[in-house]
UniProtKB/TrEMBL annotation:
<dbReference type="Pfam" id="PF02866">
    <property type="entry name" value="Ldh_1_C"/>
</dbReference>
<feature type="modified residue" description="Phosphotyrosine">
    <location>
        <position position="220"/>
    </location>
</feature>
<dbReference type="InterPro" id="IPR018177">
    <property type="entry name" value="L-lactate_DH_AS"/>
</dbReference>
<keyword id="KW-0560">Oxidoreductase</keyword>
<comment type="similarity">
    <text>Belongs to the LDH/MDH superfamily. LDH family.</text>
</comment>
<keyword id="KW-0021">Allosteric enzyme</keyword>
<dbReference type="InterPro" id="IPR015955">
    <property type="entry name" value="Lactate_DH/Glyco_Ohase_4_C"/>
</dbReference>
<feature type="domain" description="Lactate/malate dehydrogenase C-terminal">
    <location>
        <begin position="144"/>
        <end position="308"/>
    </location>
</feature>
<feature type="binding site">
    <location>
        <begin position="147"/>
        <end position="150"/>
    </location>
    <ligand>
        <name>substrate</name>
    </ligand>
</feature>
<dbReference type="InterPro" id="IPR001557">
    <property type="entry name" value="L-lactate/malate_DH"/>
</dbReference>
<dbReference type="InterPro" id="IPR001236">
    <property type="entry name" value="Lactate/malate_DH_N"/>
</dbReference>
<dbReference type="InterPro" id="IPR022383">
    <property type="entry name" value="Lactate/malate_DH_C"/>
</dbReference>
<comment type="function">
    <text>Catalyzes the conversion of lactate to pyruvate.</text>
</comment>
<protein>
    <recommendedName>
        <fullName>L-lactate dehydrogenase</fullName>
        <ecNumber>1.1.1.27</ecNumber>
    </recommendedName>
</protein>
<feature type="binding site">
    <location>
        <position position="12"/>
    </location>
    <ligand>
        <name>NAD(+)</name>
    </ligand>
</feature>
<feature type="binding site">
    <location>
        <position position="33"/>
    </location>
    <ligand>
        <name>NAD(+)</name>
    </ligand>
</feature>
<feature type="domain" description="Lactate/malate dehydrogenase N-terminal">
    <location>
        <begin position="3"/>
        <end position="141"/>
    </location>
</feature>
Length: 312
């Protein structure tokens, strides 16, 4: 029986639980938070909706043993990004949280895959992999799955096509140094660089700049307006969970530790990867032009510098 444990009952953790219930991903769902009143309230509210979703058992507690024997532990706990604050600025306090949390989690769920959602997700994925001493494939982050979804949505809206038919990725950091992979983007089977459907617009250089700026600043816009991003990251995380628990072999731009990838080593960042029941089975080489290759290396340097600053 599949069990998902979610650490953190804040807006992101609760939304992931909600999306998991609606899609019927797991038969057992556990929510852990040090705030007992909050976790009890979220679990009660979610359980009141069980009649309307695929059957599952949902429990919550301020005792970490609620995560026992989970197949996947999703970590969302940590300091929240404030208006105007970068993800990297969250690093210090959230690393300290992981130092105390990870040994406790491994004690109750030693066989679990660890899926990081807490920001800065690339830095924390690296730190947790080091702290846990688990194989790199078992510790990975939500990475740029959400950024890539934002990217596809904006391209689709501009071209007036279904977002499901746009295939385009954001790679590197889930943050300000991320890079758009324009050279390999397609609509259906048509390379974006060759897109010329009558009545469906084209992308100028100015359009590309605007779209990527909107992707990169999306979280800041949402946080400024409502305090947190939660719906899209909830759905993005559930897609990753489905890839794992259903053993889908799905290609997703999750964040995992890279060694010798396009000349990049000893850092966690997002590149297209095959995700299945074992975690990140393999990372895929991708076609890059010179600008993208240099951008990916700069993004790796940014993340690595943050990791070193924290003493890892």
């Amino acid at each position: 029986m599949n069990k998902i444990a979610i650490v953190g009952a804040g807006s992101v953790g609760a939304t992931i639980a909600y999306a998991t219930m609606i899609r019927g991903v797991a038969k057992q769902l556990a929510l852990y938070d040090i705030n007992r009143a909050k976790v009890d309230a979220e679990v009660l509210d979610l359980n009141h909706g069980l009649q309307f979703v695929p059957m599952a058992t949902l429990v919550g507690s301020d005792d970490i043993s609620v995560c026992a024997d989970a197949d996947v532990v999703v970590i969302t706990a940590g300091a929240k990004q404030k208006p105007g604050q970068t993800r990297m600025e969250l690093a210090g306090s959230n690393v300290e949280l992981c130092r105390s949390l990870i040994p406790q989690l491994l004690k109750v769920a030693p066989n679990a895959l660890l899926l990081l959602v807490t920001n800065p997700v690339d830095v924390l994925t690296y730190v947790v992999q080091k702290l846990s001493d688990l194989p790199a494939r078992r510790v990975f982050g939500s990475g740029t799955v959400l950024d890539s979804s934002r990217f596809r949505f904006l391209i689709a809206r501009h071209l007036n096509v279904a977002v499901q038919n746009v295939h385009a990725l954001i790679a590197g950091e889930h943050g300000d140094s991320e890079i758009p992979l324009w050279s390999s983007a397609t609509v259906g089977v048509v390379p974006l660089t060759q897109w010329a459907a009558p009545g469906h617009s084209r992308l100028t250089e100015e359009d590309r700049t605007r779209i990527f700026d909107d992707v990169r600043t999306a979280a800041y816009q949402i946080i400024q307006g409502k305090g947190a991003t939660n719906y899209a990251i909830g759905l993005a995380t559930v897609q990753i969970l489905e890839a794992v628990l259903y053993d889908e072999q799905r290609v997703l731009p999750v964040s995992s530790r890279l060694e010798g990838y396009q000349g990049i080593s000893d850092v966690c960042m997002s590149v297209p990867s095959i995700v299945n029941r074992t975690g990140v089975e393999t990372v895929l080489e991708m076609p890059l032009n010179d600008t993208e290759r240099e951008g990916l290396k700069r993004s790796a340097d940014t993340i690595r510098q943050a990791i070193r600053t924290l003493g890892f």
